[in-house]
From TrEMBL:
Source organism (scientific name): Komagataeibacter intermedius AF2
Domain Aminotransferase class I/classII large: 41-386
Subunit and partners: Homodimer.
Keywords: Biotin biosynthesis, Pyridoxal phosphate, Transferase
Record family assignment: Belongs to the class-II pyridoxal-phosphate-dependent aminotransferase family. BioF subfamily.
UniProt cross-references to PROSITE patterns, sorted A to Z: AA_TRANSFER_CLASS_2
Catalysis: reaction(s): 6-carboxyhexanoyl-[ACP] + L-alanine + H(+) = (8S)-8-amino-7-oxononanoate + holo-[ACP] + CO2
Stored InterPro entries: Aminotrans_II_pyridoxalP_BS, Aminotransferase_I/II_large, AON_synthase_class-II, PyrdxlP-dep_Trfase, PyrdxlP-dep_Trfase_major, PyrdxlP-dep_Trfase_small
One record GO biological process: biotin biosynthetic process
Transmembrane segments: none
Name recorded for this polypeptide: 8-amino-7-oxononanoate synthase
Amino acid sequence: MARFDPIFQTALDHMADTHTRRVLRPVQHVGAATVIRDGRELVNFSSNDYLGLSHHPALAARAAEWLRLDGTGSGASRLVTGTSPRHMHVETRLAAFKGCEGAVILASGWQANASVLAALLRLAAGQGAPPLVFTDRLNHASLHQGCMAAGVRQIRFRHNDLDHLDSLLDRHAGNDRAMRVIVTESVFSMDGDRTDIARLAAIARRHGAFTYVDEAHATGVLGPQGRGLCAEYEIDLVMGTFSKALGGFGAYVAGSRALCDWLVNACSGFVFTTAPPPAVLGAMDAALELVPTLDEARARLARNAAHIRDVIQGCGLTSGPSTTQIIPIMMGEATRALAFAARLEACGVLATAIRPPTVPPNGSRIRLALSAAHTGSMIDRLATAITHAARESA
């Protein structure tokens, strides 16, 4: 035992006592919608692979081709020798997809939010007064980290309450020297609800505020051609990922050319990180080519999500404010969520119990994530499993 292990073990024991300790349970992915765990095949309703692209042959083929041609690694950060014509090509295609002047690829969504937002807020602090940063109280942990890294105080508005945001901006209207920054998500990862982006953009414009919107769970699924909820509105910086509906790995930010050029110089998560490798870029490129053609898959996904919400409500349970492919089954206590997840698994369905601190106290839930790769029989199995689990837990 190492000298400091008693400290770690005490913390682990406390997590176990409060039913919040996590353990790694490996699975073997079998296609886009099923996994094998402990020798059993389960239908996967916990993956963010919303379009089933992680196993699409077009992504695999381009990833393999670019790996064969360019090797397994990029060798350096983008500002040293890590930038290849492939990087520039993907960023150009990404900017066109998002309808922006420019785009910058980063290693992960967490890294993007934590480092891009920190850089932006530090710059804002140098404009004459500390920035006023208005954030949705349920923003992802990476967005909170970006604010903390910049040393700014968040002015938090009630979740998805744009009236409250508007009133907070009015309350701080007298501070003309401070840059105003609104930070939120277009689709929230735990509740599956969406922000009214049209109204958000109008509020920001009226108050002269910079808008930073995380589109990780909307990109590929929502908006025209899957371009996200921000696609038709004036949003200053849009962040998203390739690791969810786009079926690969990595993240991006998109915005004006000047903004992207500045981030290349000022964002630590870009400057000090090895560039994404060729195979990752190949999957990105193929996904960006494919996603605009998948309107039928997006429509089917929306229909299945509406059906499952009806099933949940028919069982006397609640799916919260969900209007997307992310559907919580609200449980409250962590022990109840864990037991419900175990009942679903016994029915052949993998649906993870989400517990604090990922969600607020007494906010434990089953988080369902539907995919266009789910067949009709898989959706029927989920509906039957939810009904059975609800009956057993009544």
